[in-house]
Design goal:
Elements lengths: L1 H23 L7 H9 L11 E2 L12 H8 L4 E4 L5 E7 L4 E8 L2 E9 L14 H5 L7 E6 L2 E6 L2 H6 L2 E4 L4 E6 L6 E7 L1 H7 L3 E3 L14 H22 L9 H16 L7 H12 L7 E2 L2 H9 L6 E7 L4 H9 L2 H4 L8 E8 L2 E8 L3 H6 L2
Parallel strand pairs: 1-8
Antiparallel strand pairs: 2-3, 3-4, 4-5, 5-10, 6-7, 7-11, 8-9, 9-10, 12-13, 13-15, 14-15
């Protein structure tokens, strides 16, 4: 009996030891390989899957010869040199109520900016559709990963981007950026573009190495290009005012000259208007070969600039670089920080000035015009 009790006690002790061993002496987890892979991927792009819609409408013209586009919508009403290696063509089809711009390089369509469209030309989208309407067609993704010239590239959208500037992919390798009005919530413009244009214009945060970049053509006729860009921006802002049912902008040669002078003032002596840390930011943005480093002036900096010319009740926007004026203003118009500046219900005097990739836009209450002119 004693032997039986001793046997049982010994068995219990051995069994307990076997069960407790993993707890007291836990096995070493095989995580070294996973940890190394994780550390190795920190500098790599995370793969993000996304849905692709069937290519329809204007998305089918991206990457195609420009003759194919023009056989459908007619000859351009205007042709502008960008100064960055591509041409901008402006089209207007009053019968089908289509207004758009196209970026053309090497006789191929790289981007189409639809400013007005009929009920069918934007299919599966439509002017005035809401974000809820869009979610019935496709899922809105915050992240995208794709291959560009043997390099994996990642794009990440902010919550604001997803609400007002979502990105939609098509199965022919092209994309569409949809621009929604912050007041009405309706779609008012759509931009179709290829991977290269999407990466060069960088409307979103981009991850990857060896990204394509626009380069300034120093040999271009920039005086003529600057004037053309001023016309493009004025025309676009006037269109947006009409769509918002607001009074037209008031234009005067004097105010345009003042705007141009103020832009020159800043570019010639940025240290007069910027604090040391801001000056360092400007120098980095303006001197780098990368045209994707953006720089804007704050409200206080704009105020100091306009005070020099005694321009009362004047607001403004300075931005560098402006590669594609229309595309840049669609971004600005859907940005909560800038949006309200374009929606003043009182008549506003408009001044637009360009100097290569630098832009200054000033807006002044019309009733102050005569007084400010007398002070010059």
């Amino acid at each position: 009996m004693k032997r039986l009790g001793l046997f049982i006690a010994t068995l219990l002790l051995v069994t307990t030891a076997l069960y407790l061993e993993p707890v007291v002496f836990p096995p070493k987890l095989e995580t070294s390989t996973q940890d190394q892979q994780l550390m190795g991927n920190q500098n790599q792009v995370t793969s993000w899957k996304y849905q692709e819609l069937s290519a329809t409408g204007f998305s089918t013209y991206i990457g195609q010869p420009v003759t194919k586009l023009e056989s459908a919508i007619g000859s351009p009403k205007d042709r502008l040199t960008s100064g960055f290696g591509f041409e901008i063509r402006y089209y207007q089809d009053p019968i089908n109520q289509i207004v758009l711009e196209a970026n053309i390089q090497n006789d191929q369509v790289e981007a189409i900016k639809v400013l007005n469209a009929n009920a069918t030309s934007l299919a599966p989208f439509s002017v005035g559709m809401t974000m809820q309407d869009l979610t019935e067609i496709t899922t809105i993704f915050p992240n995208f990963t794709f291959e560009y010239e043997d390099t994996e590239v990642g794009i990440e959208l902010t919550e604001e981007d997803m609400n007002y500037r979502p990105l939609i992919a098509f199965d022919n390798g092209t994309f569409a950026m949809l621009f929604f009005d912050q007041d009405t919530g309706g779609l008012f413009s759509t931009v179709y573009l290829n991977k290269k244009s999407l990466l060069k214009l960088i409307p979103y945060q981009v991850f990857g190495e060896g990204l394509p970049q626009y380069q300034v053509d120093e040999s271009a006729d920039w005086e003529s290009i600057n004037q053309s860009r001023e016309r493009v921006v004025t025309r676009l802002l006037t269109r947006l005012r009409h769509e918002a049912e607001l009074p037209d902008y008031y234009h005067s040669p004097e105010f345009m000259i003042q705007t141009d002078v103020l832009l020159t003032d800043f570019l010639n002596q940025p240290e007069e208007w910027l604090a040391d840390n801001r000056l360092a930011e400007w120098e980095m943005a303006s001197q780098t070969a990368q045209t994707t480093v953006r720089f804007t002036l704050s409200n206080d900096e704009i105020n100091r600039l306009v005070e020099k010319r005694q321009l009362d009740q004047t607001t403004g926007i300075f931005m560098h670089p402006i590669i594609d004026p229309t595309f840049s203003f669609l971004l600005l118009y859907t940005d909560p920080y800038y949006h309200d500046r374009f929606l003043d219900k009182e008549p506003m005097q408009l001044g637009v000035a360009f100097s290569k990739e630098n832009m200054l836009v000033l807006m002044q209450e019309k009733e102050e015009t005569s007084e400010s002119s007398d002070n010059q």
